[in-house]
Amino acid sequence: MTHTDPYLALSAATGRFSYGSPRAVTLAADASRALFLRSTGSTDPVERLWLYDLATGREHLVADPAAIAPERTGAASALPPLERRLRERIRLWAPGIGSFAATGDLAQAVFALDGRVFRCDTATGTSTELPVVAPAFDPRPNADGSVVAYVADGALHLTPGSRVSPADGALWGVAEFAAQEELGRLRGHWWAPDGTALLAARVDESALPLRHFADPAHPELAPESFAYPQAGGPNADVQLWVLRPGGAATQLRWDTDEFPYVTAAGWEGDGEILLTVADRLQQNVLLLTADPATGATRELSRTEDEFWVDPLPGTPLRLADGRVLTSADTPAARGVALDGKILTDERLQVRRVVGPWRDGRLLIEAGDGDPADQHVFLLDPHTGALEKLTGGAGVHAVAAHAEDVLLLTSATLDGIRRELRTPAGSTDFPDLAAELPYHPRPLLARVTELGLPSAVLYPQGHRSGRKLPVLLDVYGGPGFQVIANEPRRWQLKQWWADQGFAVVTVDNRGTPFVSPDFTRAIFRRFSQVALDDQVAALRALGAVHPDLDLERVGVRGWSYGGYFAALAVLRRPDVFHAASAGAPPTDFRLYDTAYTERYLGLPQDNPEGYAADCLVGDAPGLSRPLLLIHGLADDNVHPAHTLLLSEALTRAGRPHGLLALPGVSHMAPDGVLEQIAVQELAFLRRELGATPSP
């Protein structure tokens, strides 16, 4: 795609500044080597497999798609549907090696390319294609790499070997939509440590309604369909089985009617499996131990919440001494508890439990005061003592760890550093991403009596006293925080500011990382709290920033942010004067079960809440300019959401804009997002009278 704006051209060419960054870093069990995915530079989108030697600090290219399969295009259309949809779930659009699985010593790695499976000898850099029965997905080796399990045509197979799952019409070895998109489980099969058995998910989607996608730009092509768990309707029937090649199959038994969601699973040795299950409204989460020989399960821990159990990655976790670490929320803090005893105090907001490291202590990622920052700590599970491993404003995270080695990613407003800490010292891990063009300095503040995190970003070189139209650049929904000292999320916002706007961002109640009470304020209704908070924050910021022209306020957003943008002009035209709404879920009765029901409950139990959050009925009242944008290949927020609102607006005689994007998914990859920005800019400049800063 052609981009004439220098920033948009650079953003598109560098994959929003992601090309060349290392990803999926995996350390060997002895921490001597690391495997990772990365392209060859900042404008190369094709990810390759690299080996890094920690002793020498040297990296080696071990698998290059261009050499292994030179005829491939890397097009998403060439991927098996299961893999294409998984990439959409994890927001991955790189056309190279999307994922790999390796033996514990990293001597061998396996990966798929366009449905073909390859085994790589990482010492020699030699890749060998393995025979598969059909286009394959998610190959995984056993412990010594001699056998690889993979999914083809919805069945679980071995190479060398044959089909290992029954031919019963179900999908085997995959994670269903709800698990991938909402519950954090991306896998559907796991090898036993001794390689004699597989734990496999059996997914029956026969009760689910189908979602259909047709490409109007190619009417000669048949529409594509897939099963979708719609709020209030049936979920996929998910079971776990132990499959033994050439032997008997054993089903793990728990109350799947009461606890239909499997959020995590895996082997804890050849004789035990651990799995985490949740009830439909996610108010009860169980950690179960299972006997792979008999399928019998036993409860190890239970986490309950009257609202919902907010997922805390890494928990529940059973420690080496048998005790169980779980999330433990108070109204003021996200914490962790060991066998029910809270370990952390209320100054921490725990965001992830990474796992054990050094002397039985636990690596955790947590907020420590300002929700815009995240730090890495070592937590002693015996005493609750904390050691802080990172410092300074920013978002610090653990990318990999093993033995005495720690790979940290530290993102600050000055840039991103990947630091490898070993007993010998600290070094930078190879990163070839483009230098970020902007070094924004958003003015952060906690506003209103609720302490809403907010930011104002002015054009570079802005002169005090010049009134600017306001652009509220918003997300506002559960599960994602916008206000953070992380540089990439401010790059596009700075571009918008330089087009002549004062860019305002607010994390309203319902967003994470402030406190559980803050997050749960949207229980059983999304719209009102978000709208009230954003309006109150705008007014509070206007009182201390006289250059914000609150008579010219535009709002833009994508996904939940698109929902809020449309909501804003439909219900508060006195405050918001124009909106650009991208991929908005306009009626949550049409969205998926696991996300929507966690917050709103079942539609049949909360019809008033669902009706209040639906935008379609507001169509006759539109009095402000509204631009609707949607990719017609969006399998997350189906384009029906936007089209139903557009239809209602048309029937009501309310003018609006509609930008429909054939072949574009929810990610809007490959420069599409930047092209959309051009359209949004023309719309918002016209409606708000913005001019670039001199």
TrEMBL record:
<dbReference type="Pfam" id="PF00930">
    <property type="entry name" value="DPPIV_N"/>
</dbReference>
<dbReference type="Pfam" id="PF00326">
    <property type="entry name" value="Peptidase_S9"/>
</dbReference>
<feature type="domain" description="Dipeptidylpeptidase IV N-terminal">
    <location>
        <begin position="115"/>
        <end position="311"/>
    </location>
</feature>
<dbReference type="InterPro" id="IPR029058">
    <property type="entry name" value="AB_hydrolase_fold"/>
</dbReference>
<feature type="domain" description="Peptidase S9 prolyl oligopeptidase catalytic">
    <location>
        <begin position="494"/>
        <end position="689"/>
    </location>
</feature>
<protein>
    <submittedName>
        <fullName>Prolyl oligopeptidase family serine peptidase</fullName>
    </submittedName>
</protein>
<dbReference type="InterPro" id="IPR001375">
    <property type="entry name" value="Peptidase_S9_cat"/>
</dbReference>
<dbReference type="InterPro" id="IPR002469">
    <property type="entry name" value="Peptidase_S9B_N"/>
</dbReference>
<dbReference type="InterPro" id="IPR050278">
    <property type="entry name" value="Serine_Prot_S9B/DPPIV"/>
</dbReference>
